[in-house]
Amino acid sequence: xxxxxxxxxxxxxxxxxxxxxxxxxxxxxxxxxxxxxxxxxxxxx
Length: 45
Description:
Elements: E1 5-9, H1 13-24, E2 28-32, H2 36-44
Parallel strand pairs: 1-2
């Protein structure tokens, strides 16, 4: 199985770090969170 796209549920401290590590390895990452402030903070991380 080859994954190219990954969705991370939650853009808090843990979710943003998971998204960062996954994107660093070359995957396409989408971060989903119900709190827009968490999404903005994850973008700055």
